[in-house]
Design a protein that fits this description.
single chain; mainly beta; Immunoglobulin-like; 5-stranded mixed sheet; 4-stranded antiparallel sheet; 44 strands; elongated; signal; transmembrane helix; cell membrane; cadherin binding
C-alpha cells in the first residue's frame, strides 16, 4: 500500500523532493472523504543540502499530507504507530533529523527523529479531544538548519462507540388528563450520546418503552410519549411508572443503551356526579333555637377532586322551605342546614325537606353521562322548649289627660305563655324606666294606673317598660315598651311673651302706635291659639291710650292725643286682660309700662328722665360725667403732691429715741450685780455706733458688720 501511494505520486509529479507517509492498515479504512494525502500547489519545496553543492535550492513541493487518523481507546503492549514522515533529502546516511511540535508533541505523540515514525504514547479519548494539530520539519542533524519549511498536519481521533446514551434531565414527571383519547401528548424525553454524531451510528439513538405498556407509547426517533389506551380513569389508577430506553447504533445489536423513568399522573376531570352518603337524614331542633344556628349537616361525596368535586346545595321541595336554608361549607363541602325563621312547637312539630347537591363546574364532554346532581330527604323534628311570655303587641301607646285623677286606669297590657303548660303571668313595671313612680300596674291583669298627677307642660311623653314573668318559672321573662302620651287640658292662662316697656315721644301724634305686644300660652289647643285683648273695665274710657287687635294675634297700643310731658307725668301704667279660646277659657292681666321720652324731630328717643330739664342747654349727661371725672382726677393729683412734700421734709438722721433695735456688745468685764448701774453706758447698748459720733442714715443702706467668732 505505501509503495502504491509512492508510485501514484511519482507518476503525477516529478518534484525534487517527495515526502510520503506510511500509516497502519487500519487507518486506511477511514472514509474516503478523509483522504490521507492531498495535493498542494502553494507550499514551498523541501530543501536539500549536498556535499558537492552548498547552495540552498528551493523547489515546489508536489505532495503534502493533510491529516492522519488514530482510533480512540486503542491500547496494546507497545505504542501505536500513527504514521511515518519521509523526505527524499534523506539518502540514508542519517543526516536528516525529523522534528515534531504542536498539540501533544513529546507527550502524547512522539516521532522517531531518524525514521520519521510517529507513535501515540497514550490511550486517546475522542470525547476529551477530537483532533490534534501538529507541525513537522526536517533539519540537518549536525547543524540543526532547516532543510525545508515546516508543514502543519492534523491527527484526528477516530470515534468508536464507547459512550452509552444518557438522560440528563431524568427522571421525568408528567401529567395528562384522565379519560384522554389515544395519541394524546404526554411529554417528551431527550437523551444525549457523547460519541461522534457524524461518524457511523455511534450517536444515532432509538427510543423504546421497557415498562408502561399498554398504557403509553413513545415515538422511536422523537421520544414523544403519548397515551396508548382510551378512557384511563384517575379514580381507578392515578399514577403510572414508565421506563424509557434510548439505544445507540440505531437500535441494532451491540449498541449501548441508557434508561430513565417517567412518572405520569392522571389529572382529574369532572366525570363523576355527587352522591349523598344516605338518602334520608333525621334532625331535631328546639323551638327556641336562634336564627342562623346550624341544626344539621348533609354530605354528597364526589370521587373527583379540587374544583371538580365542589357542589352547591339547595332546598327544592318541602313544607319548610321558608323556615330553613342550606349553605355549603367551603372547607368540607358539607351542606349546612340553618334556621331561617322562628319555629313554634305549638304550631308545627315536624318538617320534611328535599335537598339537592349539584356540581358547580360541569365538563361538556361528559354531560351525556347523566345529570351531575343527587337528592336526599331531610326530616326535621321540632322539640318543645319553655318559652317566655308573649305580649299581645310588640309595643303599646297609651293616652291620658293631664288632669286625670290619681289611680285612674290609663290602659292595659296582656301576655300569655305560649307553652302547652300555659303558666300564669305576673306583670310589673321596670322602675329604672319610672324613677318618679308616676305609674302603677296590676300584677294580675296588667292594668296601668296613674300614681301621681301629670303635667303636659312639664313632660308630654313617658316611656316605661312592662315586665311579664311566668309564675312557675321566674327565669322566663319578657319585656315590652309602653309609651304614654299626656293630652293637653286648658289649665294655663295666656301672658305677655316678654316684659314689655313702651316709650312715648312728647312730640308724638294722636293715633301713633306706641308698642306692639304678643302673648303666649303653655297649653297646646288642637286648632292653635287665639287670644282676646281688653282693658280693665275701669280703664275702658282711658283718655290717653287705646288698644287694637291685629290679625297675627298681636296687640297694638296707640296714643289718643299728643302733648305728653315728662314734667307732668313721666310713666303711665296700662293693665291689659289677655284671654284664650279654651274650654273653659283662661285669662290673665298683664301691665304695660309706658314711659314718656324726649325725641328728635324724626322720632328717635334721646332721653326719658325728668332730670334732663335741669341740665344746661346743649350739655348732655355724658358730658357732665366727663367733667366730673376730670375734677376727681385733679383732686387725686393734688393729694399726691402734698404727700410727697411731707415725705421730703422728714430728717435723714435716725434719732436715739427712734432706734428700737437691740444690739449686743461683748465685753470681758465682770458686772457688779443689780446694784451696779455705772458699769456700762446704756446709750452705748442702744446705739453702738454713737460712741464715735456716727449716726446711721435712713436714706442709705448701712454696711453690714460681722463680729469675729
Amino acid at each position: 500500500m505505501p509503495e502504491r501511494l509512492t508510485d501514484m505520486l511519482m507518476d503525477t509529479w516529478t518534484p525534487l523532493v517527495i515526502l510520503w507517509i506510511t500509516v497502519l492498515p487500519s487507518i486506511y479504512m477511514a472514509p474516503m472523504n478523509q483522504s490521507q494525502v492531498l495535493p498542494s500547489g502553494s507550499s514551498s519545496g523541501l530543501k536539500r543540502l549536498t556535499e558537492e553543492q552548498r547552495v540552498l535550492n528551493r523547489s515546489k513541493r508536489g505532495w503534502v499530507w493533510n491529516q492522519m487518523f488514530v482510533l480512540e481507546e486503542f491500547s496494546g503492549p507497545e505504542p501505536i504507530l500513527v504514521g511515518r514522515l519521509h523526505t527524499d533529502l534523506d539518502p540514508g546516511s542519517s543526516k536528516i533529523k525529523y522534528i515534531l511540535s504542536g498539540d501533544g508533541a513529546g507527550t502524547i505523540f512522539v516521532i522517531n527523529d531518524k525514521t520519521g515514525d510517529i507513535h501515540a504514547m497514550k490511550r486517546l479519548d475522542r470525547e476529551e479531544k477530537a483532533e490534534y494539530t501538529l507541525t513537522a520539519q526536517a533539519v540537518d542533524r549536525d547543524t540543526n538548519q532547516p532543510l525545508e519549511p515546516p508543514s502543519e498536519f492534523i491527527i484526528k481521533v477516530q470515534d468508536i462507540n464507547d459512550n452509552p446514551p444518557e438522560f440528563v434531565d431524568g427522571p421525568y414527571h408528567a401529567t395528562v388528563p384522565e379519560m384522554s383519547v389515544v395519541g394524546t401528548f404526554v411529554t417528551k424525553v431527550t437523551a444525549t450520546d457523547a460519541d461522534d454524531p457524524v461518524y457511523g451510528n455511534s450517536a444515532k439513538l432509538v427510543y423504546s418503552i421497557l415498562e408502561g405498556q399498554p398504557y403509553f407509547s413513545i415515538e422511536p426517533h422523537t421520544a414523544i410519549i403519548k397515551t396508548a389506551l382510551p378512557n384511563m380513569d384517575r379514580e381507578a389508577k392515578e399514577e403510572y411508572f414508565v421506563v424509557i430506553q434510548a439505544k445507540d447504533m440505531g437500535g441494532h445489536m451491540g449498541g449501548l443503551s441508557g434508561t430513565t423513568t417517567v412518572t405520569i399522573t392522571l389529572t382529574d376531570v369532572n366525570d363523576n356526579p355527587p352522591k349523598f352518603a344516605q338518602s334520608l337524614y333525621h334532625f331535631s331542633v328546639m323551638e327556641d333555637v336562634a336564627l342562623g344556628e346550624p341544626i344539621g349537616r348533609v354530605k354528597a361525596n364526589d370521587l373527583d377532586t379540587g374544583e371538580n368535586a365542589k357542589s352547591s346545595y339547595d332546598i327544592i321541595e318541602g313544607d319548610g322551605m321558608d323556615l330553613f336554608e342550606i349553605t355549603t361549607d367551603a372547607q368540607t363541602q358539607d351542606g349546612i342546614i340553618r334556621v331561617r325563621k322562628p319555629l313554634d312547637f305549638e304550631t308545627k312539630k315536624s318538617y320534611t325537606l328535599k335537598v339537592e347537591a349539584a356540581n358547580i363546574h360541569i365538563d361538556p364532554r361528559f354531560i351525556s353521562g347523566g345529570p351531575f346532581k343527587d337528592t336526599a330527604t331531610v326530616k326535621i323534628v321540632v322539640e318543645d322548649a319553655d318559652e317566655p311570655p308573649v305580649f299581645s303587641s310588640p309595643t303599646y301607646l297609651l293616652e291620658v289627660h293631664e288632669n286625670a285623677a290619681i289611680n285612674s286606669v290609663i290602659g292595659q297590657v296582656t301576655a300569655h305563655d305560649p307553652d302547652v303548660s300555659s303558666s300564669p303571668i305576673r306583670f310589673s313595671i321596670d322602675r329604672h324606666t319610672d324613677l318618679e313612680r308616676q305609674f302603677n300596674i296590676n300584677a294580675e291583669d296588667g292594668k296601668i294606673t296613674l300614681a301621681t298627677p301629670l303635667d303636659r307642660e312639664t313632660n308630654m311623653w313617658h316611656n316605661i317598660t312592662i315586665v311579664a314573668t311566668e309564675t312557675r318559672n321566674h327565669s322566663q321573662v319578657s319585656r315590652v315598651p309602653v309609651v304614654i302620651k299626656v293630652l293637653d287640658v286648658n289649665d294655663n292662662a295666656p301672658e305677655f311673651a316678654s316684659e314689655h316697656e313702651a316709650f312715648l315721644c312728647e312730640n308724638g301724634k294722636p293715633g301713633q302706635v306706641i308698642q306692639i305686644v304678643s302673648a303666649v300660652d303653655k297649653d297646646d289647643p288642637k286648632n292653635g291659639h287665639y287670644f282676646l285683648y281688653s282693658l280693665l273695665p275701669e280703664m275702658v274710657n282711658n283718655p290717653n291710650f287705646t288698644i287694637k287687635k291685629n290679625e297675627d294675634n298681636t296687640l297694638s297700643i296707640l296714643a289718643k292725643h299728643s302733648g305728653f310731658s315728662r314734667q307732668k307725668q313721666e310713666v303711665y301704667l296700662l293693665p291689659i286682660i289677655i284671654s284664650d279660646s279654651g274650654n273653659p277659657p283662661m285669662s290673665s292681666t298683664s301691665t304695660l309700662t309706658i314711659r314718656v321720652c324726649g325725641c328728635s324731630s324724626d322720632g328717635i328717643v334721646q332721653s326719658c328722665n325728668v332730670e334732663a330739664y335741669v341740665l344746661p342747654i346743649g350739655l348732655s349727661m355724658g358730658a357732665l360725667i366727663a367733667i366730673l371725672a376730670c375734677i376727681i382726677l385733679l383732686l387725686v393729683i393734688v393729694v399726691l403732691f402734698v404727700t410727697l412734700r411731707r415725705h421730703k421734709n422728714e430728717p435723714l438722721i435716725i434719732k436715739d429715741d427712734e432706734d428700737v433695735r437691740e444690739n449686743i456688745i461683748r465685753y470681758d468685764d465682770e458686772g457688779g450685780g443689780e446694784e451696779d448701774t455705772e458699769a456700762f453706758d446704756i446709750a452705748t447698748l442702744q446705739n453702738p455706733d454713737g460712741i464715735n459720733g456716727f449716726l446711721p442714715r435712713k436714706d442709705i443702706k448701712p454696711d453690714l458688720q460681722f463680729m469675729p467668732r
